[in-house]
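TEACHING EXERCISE
Course module: macromolecular assemblies
Task: Read the component lines below, then compare them to the predicted structure of the full complex.
Student: A.B.
Group: 4
Components provided:
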Amino acid sequence: MKTDRRGFLKIGGLGILGFAARPLVDVLLRGDLVEASPAPDTLAGKRWAMAVNVSKCKEGCRDCIVACHSVHNVPDLGNPKDEVKWIWTESYKKIFPEQEQEFDARGGKPVVVLCNHCDNPPCVRVCPTKATFKRSDGIVMMDYHRCIGCRFCMAACPYGSRSLNWRDPRPFIKKINPEFPTRTRGVVEKCDFCVERLAKGLIPACVEACKEKALVFGNLKESGAEIREILRANHTIRRRPWLGTGPQIYYIV
Amino acid sequence: MAGIIIFLCLITFPIWYNVTGGKAEYVPDLKIVTQEKQCVESKGYMRNNHMQLLNEWRNTVVREGNRVYVASDGRKYDMSLSRTCLKCHVNKADFCDKCHNYVEVAPTCFNCHVVPEEKKS
Amino acid sequence: MLEKALIGSKKYYGLVTLLLIIIGAGFYFYLRQLSYGLGITGMSRDVSWGLYITQFTFLVGVAASAVMVVLPYYLHNYKIFGKITILGEFLAVASVAMCLTFIIADLGQPARAFNVLLYPTPTSILFWDMVVLNGYLLLNIVIGWTVLASERKSVPPPAWVKPLIYLSIPWAVSIHTVTAFIYAGIPGRGFWLTAIMAPRFLASAFASGPALLILMCFIVRRFTRFDPGKEAIQSLAKIVAYAVAVSVFFVLLEIFTVFYSQIPEHMHHFEYLFFGMEGHEKLVPWIWTSAILAILSLILLINPVTRRKEGILAMTCVAVFASLWIEKGLGLVITGFIPSPLGRVFEYSPTGPEVIITLGIWAMGFLILTILYKIAVTVKEEIST
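Instructor-supplied answer key:
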């Protein structure tokens, strides 16, 4: 067989491509090395939700915010551009813009907002790597290991619940809680309904911190749950429900 | 032809340089200062597969919400880098880093996960 | 054929060197961005996409426009475009290369980019955009290169490229449709939530792309012995005229629906864009410049006297390109974030490093374009002598 320079280069190139394909094949053929214990299905049969009683919420109080942000190592970057936040307050008329009217005394009242843990979350739909996903108990989770930082989820969230780490957050965390990881630059983060506390049988940090009992957290699938009773007996509204997202933070206004 | 020989010599230089220099047999001396006698799996398995095991732990905890690892001998562990691995291997610098530096890998685990206060010994 | 890119005039080397210097500067600031994080840019929690994604969106249009020369030539046997199909295809290659680089530059964790392949997610439009953009890049490289190589040997192109050429036509439409879906499928952003987004994208693409192609034809004719032909340029000009008209029409449709229905969620964004809001009006002068340029170029393109004067046509093409770069590049992406879902007006302006990185990627695209055009033009010159 006669090989000219051109042919040699072609074969050489293909050969090198072959080497490059090797890791890919390895990834695809990789089996599970170890077997984690079969998941004791603790998640199914649950649907976590929260009710916020706006009238009980004391103006100027930041207990829930401080509790959440210190437990989860949320940095305080001190400027609105780089800001990272999981739970914060906005004025009533900003979060329910279509329900406001000029004489409503609540117009300027700060109301607690956080991730709505939607039933039909747009952020999950748009994520190109499944880095954000919905657990069977309804919690919309972030896998910080997988996030590529494309910020499609930030564009897709109709509630502004997501923050990117525009820079290394560590220097901006006053006191690092060693029990919980920080994040790294370039990943998106948000409220996770305290999955790590729920796993230990604790309620979310914000709910625990609220002395006024303005926040009620519970399982909608549990027939005697307090949250079920609250939703049954009160008129509640949700943020922008007509978008079809099915938000699971209910406001009693 | 001579060109090919020179090329092969140059490209294999790091290998035979290390072999003749006796550096090929060097193994980093890791200090295991654990209280437990045995890791979650056997020493050999951990040496070869700890990265896959940690990835598996990570995915099971984060994505499936399952935090309990049942080892091959039936013992149960909390799947956690800082609460299980580092509770025992308190000397990250002498254990993790030493070998990772030797093989020139830079795992990004600790960009986020917090290293518990190291006991200086 | 690649060797043709190595031998050139002093001017050619000068241009390549200049582009390499700009690329170098961009790369230096990209390294800074890698170590600091995306906070080095002007993007914020509220305006989370900026210059990079706007350039990506705009350039997808330029890439898709290659179809405007390929389709008449291959489907309607419009011979006059025979000489410039290669220029269109190579322009598409350079544009898609820029698009993909802009996406990488925009990632917070670029090292993990392959997660898109490792965990393919068909519900994500970004996943499909990755698929169609890479496919389009490959199609245009293979088609352009093969056809040019056969042309050089004065033989008809191999039979297997024909199906690829036919495939590239709907594929060109797909890249811009999928890119429009990134925006048009998001429930909470009134500015983007419009079914006309994809046709609007295509109309503006078929104006800005061919406008750039006309300018490229002028440059090629000026500096080389290859003449794309007066008639080809005039036909392209007509395409630009129709496309600008349709593009302006589509924008007016949006403006009618939004301001007549007066639904706040949709209207606020347009108010911010055209008139400013709460004293914030950074985009206002830009968008009016774009509007005036669009109207002006429309007049100059429709009038046959001004269209046929090549000097005026060149100016008009610059105006079309600038107008649509503003409208789609700046207006369309950034305004979607202002006001934010929480009603906050937080403005965006790019930082110095961000602008230099952007220029670096443009220079990279123009370097690819220069090299590809150098090869194509040298081959064409050889054939004609």
